[in-house]
């Protein structure tokens, strides 16, 4: 057997993005915004396990939907995702992936059913069979993950998160505190198999205390410029990720400030229309990082801006938030 090596080139790289969060954290809306940016104007699709909740956003985004019902087995998820990929959607949103783990007919239910089959009501035997009962459901889950890794579309996987506590012995006394894990924050932990967030290209936890603001679980250096720790996940993040996946050099779009143009009074202000000037003024008047972030999110939802003006405003917003952060 001969082995042939070729020069590695980044092109047509399918992405898997994980978004986890509890109620009110903005994970579904953030997934929709990112999908819109990644899809480049084409309709994307949503595999909805949340009883039609994705359709609440039908007036804001252009997408097709598949309502996936119980049993939420790994096989059913695999088939639904494979069908969406075969239909050539550029982006597939799954909301939510937590059902395959903890939903009706998911992995946890399957393991319990296997335990009942092996040991019935013999409690001593049940204890001995616990590990063996995981074999079939875990293998099915592993096969599903392998299917996801072969999908050509970009995947955005939404996970529910739940608040967990743990008891820790400190100084001889037991203390109850928020659970600390590698995939959680402030006690909030994604409902999934523990390794899934690390199978993603990048994954984030969102909190209801700051909806849409990404807290990285896995974020590699090359993707850090696409996400701000003080701004909501948006269409721009999706656009930049898609460009990176296509092999486009995103260095200029991430870091360079567009050339500024003098306004009518001769002042260097930048922007090609009055709307852009208004956003620049709002940024200048922002007195907090949150206020500046709100202006940027408002700007990103404005379809009337040119790509050049969006780039300029993002650079201005980043500069303003850095200035405000230094003042704190």
Description:
By secondary structure, the chain is an alpha/beta fold. The protein folds into two domains: 16-246, Rossmann fold, CATH 3.40.50; 257-327, no CATH class. The protein contains twelve helices and ten strands. The strands form two sheets. Strands 1, 2, 3, 4, 5, 8, 9 and 10 form an eight-stranded mixed beta sheet that branches. The protein has a two-stranded antiparallel sheet with strand order 6-7. Helix 1 (27-39) crosses helix 8 (235-246), helix 2 runs parallel beside helix 6 and helix 4 (107-119) packs antiparallel against helix 6. The protein is globular, with a radius of gyration of 23 Å. It starts with 15 loop residues before the first strand and ends with a helix. Residues 252-272 have low confidence and may be disordered.
SSE layout and pairing:
Layout: E1 16-21, H1 27-39, E2 44-48, E3 63-67, H2 74-86, E4 91-95, H3 99-102, H4 107-119, H5 123-129, H6 135-150, E5 154-163, E6 165-170, E7 173-178, E8 188-190, H7 196-199, E9 202-207, E10 210-218, H8 235-246, H9 251-255, H10 274-285, H11 289-300, H12 307-327
Parallel strand pairs: 1-5, 1-9, 2-3, 2-4, 4-5
Antiparallel strand pairs: 5-8, 6-7, 9-10
Q: Do you know the CATH topology of the largest domain?
A: Rossmann fold
Number of strands: 10
Number of domains as seen in the coordinates: 2
Helix-strand pattern, N to C?
EHEEHEHHHHEEEEHEEHHHHH
- Label the structural class: alpha/beta
Instruction: Detail the poorly predicted runs.
Output: 252-272
